[in-house]
């Protein structure tokens, strides 16, 4: 299966579900969406759907306070308890913290309709997709929109949050991508301005360990090292320090779940980063450090061009 990032491979495991279990089910289209976790991502997905022309019902599942605020802002049409929302929805969109998603998945199997599609927006995928095997009554599709803001909560939700951003999908087999429910969902991903990227759960977790999780930990490490040091409190600093520590503002409420569900890929990325820093200590007085600067500038320039 060709993805926007290259080739990925699928075995035959799970293909029976797509080719057999769905045979005979009539799909009449996505007319109701239940969003579990109406925060930044869940709220933005709701707003993005509306902006893209979705005219069906959008249901929210969150705390009473969040549901009230989401209704005031026009993000959702109504709030429901989890069971009622799952029974009513054609699409169940899990935008909760990762460990809460993992807890929710087994509960859904008793509630969902056979023709429904369950998907998630979790930042790690292997453990979520493994737990999704508990869902036998309907189709599951793992997902991760690579979009976000420093602010949290439904008040920070934006209809354009996914515009121009990759949206990773992690099906358990290539055949799952041909199921009508999945094809329609991918169509909505494109309508909200994102572009789908197909990866296996393991490939996804390895990639984001380097491109997302390592930058967060590097920023946190720098801020931790400088915290309490007189040099950092002198007021003598420029925008470089502010830019480099921006990610250190991130909440551990989110990152605790990420670190807990992607330990080994993150540990591998950290070891390679530490090795690179160790090499820098050896070449500070050498022309080789100039080669590192040139290679880094080339990568940074290409990264901005791709963005």
Structure write-up:
The chain is an alpha/beta fold and 307 residues long. The protein folds into 2 domains: 2-199, Rossmann fold (3-Layer(aba) Sandwich), CATH 3.40.50; 204-306, Orthogonal Bundle (6-phosphogluconate dehydrogenase C-terminal fold). The protein has helices at residues 15-21, 40-51, 64-72, 82-88, 98-108, 126-131, 180-191, 201-226, 239-244, 252-261, 263-283, 288-306, and strands at residues 2-3, 6-7, 32-36, 57-61, 78-79, 91-94, 117-120, 139-145, 166-170, 195-198. Strands 5-4-3-6-7-8-9-10 form an 8-stranded mixed beta sheet, sandwiched between helices. It has a two-stranded antiparallel sheet with strand order 1-2.
Q: Which labels suit this protein?
A:
307 residues; Rossmann fold; 2 domains; eight-stranded mixed sheet; 12 helices; 10 strands; elongated
Produce a short descriptive summary.
The protein has 307 residues and is an alpha/beta fold.
Overall pLDDT level: 90
Total strand segments: 10
Q: Give the CATH topology of the largest domain.
A: Rossmann fold
Topology order in helix (H) and strand (E) letters? EEHEHEHEHEHEHEEHEHHHHH
Shape: elongated
Structural class: alpha/beta
State the separation between the terminal residues, measured CA to CA: 23 Å
Radius of gyration: 21 Å
Strand order of the largest sheet: 5-4-3-6-7-8-9-10
Helicity range: 40-55%
Percentage of residues in strands? 5-15%
Could you list the spans in which at least 5 consecutive residues all have pLDDT below 50? Answer: 1-24
Sketch the major β-sheet: 8 strands, mixed
């Amino acid at each position: 299966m060709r993805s926007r990032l290259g080739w990925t491979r699928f075995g035959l495991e799970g293909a029976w579900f797509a080719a057999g279990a769905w045979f005979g089910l009539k799909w009449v289209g996505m007319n109701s969406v239940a969003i579990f976790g109406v925060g930044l991502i869940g709220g933005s997905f709701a707003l993005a759907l509306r902006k893209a022309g979705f005219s069906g019902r959008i249901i929210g599942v969150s705390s009473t306070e969040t549901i009230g605020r989401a209704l005031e802002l026009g993000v959702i049409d109504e709030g429901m308890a989890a069971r009622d929302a799952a029974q009513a929805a054609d699409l169940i969109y899990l935008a909760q913290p990762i460990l809460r998603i993992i807890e929710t998945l087994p509960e859904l199997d008793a509630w969902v309709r056979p023709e429904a599609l369950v998907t998630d927006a979790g930042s790690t995928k292997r453990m979520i997709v493994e737990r999704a095997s508990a869902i036998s009554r309907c189709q599951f599709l793992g997902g991760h929109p690579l979009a976000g803001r420093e602010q949290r909560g439904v008040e920070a939700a934006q209809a354009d949050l996914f515009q121009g951003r990759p949206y990773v999908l992690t099906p358990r087999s290539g055949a799952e991508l041909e199921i009508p429910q999945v094809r329609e969902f991918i169509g909505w991903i494109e309508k909200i301005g994102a572009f789908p990227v197909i990866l296996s759960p393991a490939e996804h977790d390895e990639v984001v360990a380097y491109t997302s999780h390592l930058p967060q930990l590097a920023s946190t490490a720098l801020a931790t090292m400088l915290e309490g040091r007189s040099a950092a409190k002198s007021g003598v600093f420029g925008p470089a320090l502010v830019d480099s520590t921006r990610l250190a503002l991130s909440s551990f409420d989110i990152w605790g779940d990420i670190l807990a569900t992607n330990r080994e890929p993150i540990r591998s990325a950290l070891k390679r980063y530490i090795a690179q820093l160790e090499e820098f200590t050896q070449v500070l007085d050498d022309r080789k450090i100039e080669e590192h600067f040139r290679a880094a500038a080339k990568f940074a320039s290409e990264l901005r061009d791709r963005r």
